[in-house]
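Example 5.3 — Phage shock protein PspC N-terminal domain-containing protein
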Amino acid sequence: MNRNRLMKSNTDYIFLGVCGGIAEGLLIPSFIVRLVFIFLPVSIVLYLILGALMGKDESLYGNFRYKKNNTFKTVILALVLSAIVVIFFNSL
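Solution (predicted structure tokens):
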């Protein structure tokens, strides 16, 4: 992919496309990025923040009118999951 900035992947994703987008940007296999996220101590919070902040790669959509824009839903989901993580760690 020939991109100027980091974008979420449309083709290599499991949840939000963050790991696939990072892997495409760094030109490495996505399983390596996923392993790094699994073993990071703050991986859930970091993943959700990146999922809310990274833009979606729209190169596959072209100029079609039916492209999906779920940015609002992604931000709400990231906030809810972040709140759950914060509540969980505060209760420990």
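Remark. The two ends are 43 Å apart (CA to CA).
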